[in-house]
Please model this.
Amino acid sequence: MTTLVPTTDTLTRDALAVLQPGFTGTSAPDWLLRRVGEGLASVGVFGRNVHTPEQLAALTARLRAERDDILVAIDEESGDVTRLEVRSGSSFPGSLALGSVDDVDLTRAVARELGRRLAECGVNLNWAPSADVNADPGNPVIGVRSFGADPQLVARHTAAYVEGIQAAGVAACAKHFPGHGDTAVDSHHSLPRIDVDLDTLHARELVPFRAAIAAGSRCVMSAHILLPALDPTRPATLSPQILTGLLRQELGYDGLIVTDGMEMNAIAGTYGIERGAVLAVAAGADAICVGGGLSDEDTVLRLRDALVTAVRTGELPEERLADAAARVRALASWTQKARGAAPEPGADAQEGTAPGSGAGIGLVAARRAVTVTGTAEPLREPAYVAAFTPVANIAVGDETPWGVAAELARILPGTEADTYHGGGAPAAAGVLRAAGERRIVAVVRDAHRHAWMSEALDAVLAARPDTIVVEMGLPEAPPRGAPHIATHGAARVCGVAAAEAITGTGS
Model:
């Protein structure tokens, strides 16, 4: 049961100020506007809240009519993780594609154009980039969301992304501190444990975060991971040693610390969201992200009341809560000053990347990220596209289309496609039957992580060696196919670039 507390006192306003909740619908519900009026300083926007850029702009304008300095946050990494273009696929490639090109000017330009589009929609905090070093190629949740496996490469592109997006007046948020790249477990489901020593941590995981801090990242997001070398009992999000000792004191970070989603099972399944929120703020977090799964008013009230009660019982120092709220308001103040101050980018960055349009910076980047192994004549006839589709992780979601079929069908009318979710050799037999005499284009995503996918691909290639293989995940498996095309991500523009490579129609 929700405890009734006054809604005007400083303590309650501070408790509301540190929350970054979500909501349902494409317009701001009355309860959300009411809580904004009572002190709520941030709102998270997810794919379910976005229909069009114009609708999102109207939504954020309504929020600002209630509170002009409100932080509107979004999880817009681009690439595989997009909320702004959740129903169509992103106009920008993701981090791995940018890291594979390794042109920091390109990364900075992509981030700046993304920031411009977010700012046009009224979004002023992006929970991105991923500063994780993808040290484990089997990582089930980071993968193509990382710039790569080399700490220095990840560091320079993290810094460029921070600089680019903040030049557009949108606050960056380097995540997932102190590094989620060396995990074999998805923290959406359970608590990952990383058993590395401090020397490894400093030489690998922390390098990109140091770069993000040096670049002026306005926000850092904590990870729900256990690092026994730093804290043997509590995950980073709830650890004073990690958030205050390491991030604040040792690395000298003075910006906003926000948690990863508190409803993720690594926290919710162990501590509960109320207890987790109190421990996170006590550990040094300034903002509590919740709303990817829990998106109702009761969640906001439960967290608000848990923080107020913790202060009143002495569990959470009042000055720690006040400091957290002050940091939220300081970031809001920065975004107000930045709003409208960012210069317009060049026309080349503003051109659209929808099918049939000019090549904007996103498509330019996606084309540069394509790697082709082997040779073959360009495809000129309608093909059969077999998409071997794994279960998407929660961060990516299953709403966003991916692949090359739609673009190939546009270039080569009559091209058909089917999706295969498992089955190995039986799936391959289905592909061969459906394809008939047509050339097969086999599209995979992280084939190295899915035995059934590799088995199916091997069987298709054994029967049809001329099969074109497109890897849209992490290209860890040995290249095979005629040719093999690696896109380094599954954004819509990556599919466009792959289709151009297959047909020889790219610029």
About this structure: The chain has a mean pLDDT of 92. The CA atoms of residues 224 and 235 lie 5 Å apart.
